[in-house]
Write a structure and sequence with these properties.
Blueprint lengths: L2 H6 L3 H4 L15 H46 L6 E4 L4 E2 L14 H13 L6 E5 L9 E5 L1 H10 L3 E6 L3 H13 L6 H13 L6 H8 L3 H11 L3 H5 L12 H24 L6 H9 L3 H4 L6 E7 L2 E8 L5 E5 L5 H17 L1
Parallel strand pairs: 2-4, 3-5
Antiparallel strand pairs: 1-5, 3-4, 6-7, 7-8
Helix pairs in contact: 4-5, 7-9, 9-11, 11-12
Length: 349
């Protein structure tokens, strides 16, 4: 037999080493083993599913927490109004505006304007309402924030604003409440606002107005007295912002008892008030001047001497009032005698 024939009869596969079976993947040879393997496989699958469920539950808890935080944040903004940047030219002053023009020339206003310029705009928004029939003019009316609006207008900056839908009463009450909380609002400016509300029929009486805005009717009445002072009286002051609440009672009495005299004095003070303080102007307006212009006799002094020495003097002013001064020491007896003399003098008068 040739080599070729012998080679063809060799089983080369039997010569290759048989790989050892992996005991971990080896198939069980018995039925109980197969059942055990199946149970282990199922247990492993359950564990994997349990881990997956735990992971999903953790993510769900995290999402629920984030959702709750978002809901709470949204609730905190419930009722909030969105702000808008508006051109100051599209906004007009309210018909109930109470700011005097001098308010826009004060040092406090310049400070506010400087702060707005440095911030690039008004950080605290103003509030406006849309006008019902704006036409080609302004589109909005100020509810509150007249100084901030004026500052942005002068600086050429857009004004940050809330836009709200309010009727006249709601507008007035929000404006009044916001302005009254500011320390720089004068008594006269408050009175002007109250007068406009009454004159335009927003409230039928002072008491109902006071109830609506939560102020004392007496204080409200005092502010109205100042706001309704005659124009000549207001012109006597450098600014109506100088008027004070405590002056209203005296002004009211002067108007009721001597309006012509009050206005006459106001005209004279307006012509020469340089250097006068608001308090001095008030006194000049409310104190009749007739007694000041009467010609009075000069004061006289009479001396009483003894042995060339002045013992006493009596000084009498132009209205006849006298002051007696004793220049020497008196004994107790002499003091009693002087007292008795004065008693007889008073009794005789």
């Amino acid at each position: 037999m040739g080599l070729k024939d012998k080679a063809s009869k060799i089983d080369f596969a039997s010569l290759m080493p048989t790989p050892a079976l992996n005991p971990e993947v080896a198939k069980p040879k018995t039925a109980p083993g197969a059942m055990m393997a199946l149970a282990n496989d199922q247990r492993s699958e359950l564990l994997r599913e349990n881990d997956l469920l735990r992971e999903r539950a953790a993510k769900t808890g995290e999402l629920e927490g984030r959702l709750q935080s978002a809901v709470e944040e949204l609730q905190s903004w419930d009722g909030a109004k969105a702000t808008r940047l508006l051109d100051p030219k599209t906004i007009q002053r309210s018909v109930y505006a109470n700011r005097h023009e001098s308010s826009f020339k004060s040092e406090a206003f310049e400070t506010l304007k400087r702060e707005i310029k440095e911030a690039g705009g008004n950080v605290q928004p103003i509030k406006v309402r849309a006008l019902a029939n704006p036409g080609d003019g302004p589109q909005f009316e100020i509810v509150f924030g007249h100084r901030r609006h004026e500052a942005c207008s002068q600086l050429g900056l857009p004004v940050l604003a809330f836009v709200d839908n309010l009727d006249d009463q709601a507008l007035f009450e929000e404006m009044e409440r916001e302005n009254r909380e500011r320390a720089d609002l004068s008594a006269w400016e408050q009175g002007v606002m109250y007068a406009k509300a009454l004159d335009r029929g927003l409230y039928p009486s002072i008491r109902q107005l006071a109830t609506a805005i939560g102020v004392d009717p007496t204080n409200l009445s005092k502010a109205l007295v100042l706001a309704r002072l005659p124009a000549k009286v207001l012109e006597a002051f450098a600014s109506p912002l100088d008027l004070q609440f405590r002056w209203s009672t005296v002004f009211k009495a002067a108007i009721e008892n001597d309006l012509a005299g009050l206005e006459s004095r106001a005209v004279k003070i307006s012509a020469k008030r340089d250097g006068m303080s608001p308090k001095e102007i008030f006194a000049g307006l409310t104190t009749p001047q007739e007694s000041r212009v009467q010609v009075q006799a000069p004061a006289t002094v009479q001396a009483f001497e003894k042995a060339g020495k002045t013992v006493a003097t009596m000084k009498t002013d132009g209205e006849g009032r006298s002051v007696i001064r004793i220049h020497v020491g008196l004994t107790a007896q002499r003091q009693r005698e002087l007292a008795q003399l004065l008693e007889r003098f008073v009794a005789a008068g």
